[in-house]
């Protein structure tokens, strides 16, 4: 049973990190390079619910298996997972809906409302920082996990 839990734990962690890395460094930059700004934003907006869904699922799997494994929640593991999960859920459930609403308002205003644009840039900045936090703590958690592996 411990092997199964370890497998699911690692799977959740590497999928979580992989999705952040792939989206942040490959998907989003490529989309914004190929499409105009508005179309790229629409595509990214369509991806976000799935992106955050993967993050939520991986957070639950990673936390659940850490808690279910003897010693799996010890040391920095659980605090790292908690920080990653909090950032993922906040970005997906709070920041993303606010940003979508602002984009809608900006389109209704013809894209000329500077106050809305500034608020959107602020939310985008928070989203980027939260995503970076997930990545950094995830890499730390992966390192801690790798230190305990036996080959």
Write the topology of this structure.
Layout: H1 2-34, H2 37-68, H3 77-108, H4 114-147
Helix pairs in contact: 1-2, 1-4, 2-3, 3-4
Protein name: TMEM205-like domain-containing protein
Main location: membrane
InterPro entries: TMEM205-like
Report on this structure:
It is found in: Membrane. InterPro entries: TMEM205-like (IPR025423). Keywords: Membrane, Transmembrane, Transmembrane helix. The radius of gyration is 18 Å and the shape is elongated. Helix content is 87%, strand content 0%. The mean pLDDT is 94. The protein is an all-alpha fold and 151 residues long. The chain has one domain. The protein has four helices and no strands. It starts with a helix and ends with a helix. Helix 2 runs antiparallel to helix 3 and helix 3 packs antiparallel against helix 4.
Helix-strand sequence? HHHH
Question: In total, how many domains does the architecture comprise?
Answer: 1
Which shape, going by the Cα principal axes?
Answer: elongated
Strand content: under 5%
The secondary-structure class comes to: mainly alpha
Ends distance: 18 Å
* Tally of contiguous helical segments: 4
Helix content: over 70%
Largest sheet: none
- Topology, number of strands: 0
- Radius of gyration, taken over Cα atoms and rounded to an integer in Å: 18 Å
